[in-house]
Amino acid sequence: MDFPPTRLPGRGPGWYRGDLHVHSTHSDGELTPAALAAAARTAGLDFLAATEHNAAARPGTWGDAGGEDLLVLLGEEVTTGTGHWLALGLPPGRTADWRHRVGDPGFERALREVRGAGGLCVAAHPHAPYPGGELMYPLECFDAVEVWNGQWAADLPWNADNEAALAEWGRRLGAGTRAGRWQPAVGSSDTHLPGQLGTPQTVVRAEELSTVAILAAVRAGRSWIAGSAAVQLEFTAEAAGRTAGLGERLDTGGAPVELTVRLSGVPDGSTVHFRTVRGRAHRAPADEVVRWSTDAGQSGFVRIEVRRPGGRVVALTNPILLR
To answer: What domain of life does the native source organism fall in (predicted)?
Structure first.
């Protein structure tokens, strides 16, 4: 098989775990596609994205790596002198043009071409600490933002660069949700070395295990980010008999909003942070079930961060929007 299938049969609506930023020996990674596929299964992943630097997947490279239990999305890490971004869901043999910098018309043209081909444009590691890695393109140009990148922290994949990316994304979220256009958050390992894959991973609620459905779920923000497959999280909001989940808008009718977080697999002593348009609004111990009440007027949206003792993130979510 030259290229992997874009849909796995028999996998209907559900939550799927994946890694959206992965490098193999076909760019600057140390693992072959076959080894990455094996590592993905070990990490409990349902999908991964092949994102070599400025290169398309070659025929035969990933064709047999996935099989019936692992979806392989074709993509590219568009690597420029003023930042990197991910083009996800590209057709076989297709690349996005990387010969642009901030202010060049080629940047907007490349985004249009990726979207026109059915793909998704993701801002990669916005605060990466190396020349050319820091993203200088406006975040609002992208469909999603990689707020958690696991490449530079071996044991605990959270560092100051991720903290800065999360803070920047969080500050923009209020204005974006009010305007009706906001960029969901994703997390990826940016795997180059053994042992990195799936730390972190993006967990999406998709209609099926297919490239189209996974990208649609990411685009809509129906997702959260986990440090590993051991971490389980469910977040819902209820008001006036109506219920909403991640990426959805809840019409509260002016009634109080009851928020529920269900957790497992988080370290002892962790805390749950409820964040709204006003910043951190509530904090509680990370029990199996954590509840908090608010209203739409005060909050605008609610998203969750789960942090271990010392502040490192264990999991975080996209928002539930309140109206």
So the answer is: Bacteria
pLDDT tens-digit map of 222-254: 999 999 999 999 999 999 999 999 999 999 999
Contact 201, 228 (CB under 8 A): yes
- pLDDT of 148 above 70: yes
Q: Is the separation of the CB atoms in 146 and 125 below 8 Å?
A: yes
| Lookup: tokens for 27 | 């760019």
Distance CA 266, CA 263 (A): 7
Give phi and psi for 194, each to the nearest 5.
-60, 145
What number of other Cβ atoms are within 10 A of residue 191's Cβ?
Answer: 26
Residues with Cβ within 8 Å of 284's Cβ and at least 6 positions away in sequence, in order, are 271, 272, 274, 290, 292
Chain region(s) in the chain for CATH 3.20.20.140: 14-226
- Cα angle 287, 17, 55 (rounded to 5 degrees) comes to 140
Q: Give pTM, 2 decimals.
A: 0.97
The burial class, CB within 10 Å (0-12 / 13-18 / 19+), for 268 is: exposed
pLDDT at 66: 86
Q: What is the pLDDT of residue 58?
A: 86
Question: What CATH number matches the domain at 232-322, 2.60.40, 2.160.20, 1.10.287, 3.30.300?
Answer: 2.60.40
- Report the pLDDT value the prediction gives residue 232, as an integer from 0 to 100: 98
**What is the C-alpha to C-alpha distance for residues 134 and 118, in angstroms, rounded to an integer?**
26
> Where are the extended beta strands (E) located within 199-300?
201-206, 223-226, 232-239, 242-244, 249-250, 257-264, 271-276, 279-285, 289-294
> What pLDDT shows up at residue 179?
82
pLDDT of residue 156: 58
**pLDDT at residue 177 in the model:** 86
In the chain, which segments carry CATH 2.60.40? Answer: 232-322
Cα torsion 37, 119, 54, 224: sign: negative
Average pLDDT over residues 269-284: 97
| CATH architecture type of domain 14-226 | Alpha-Beta Barrel (3.20)
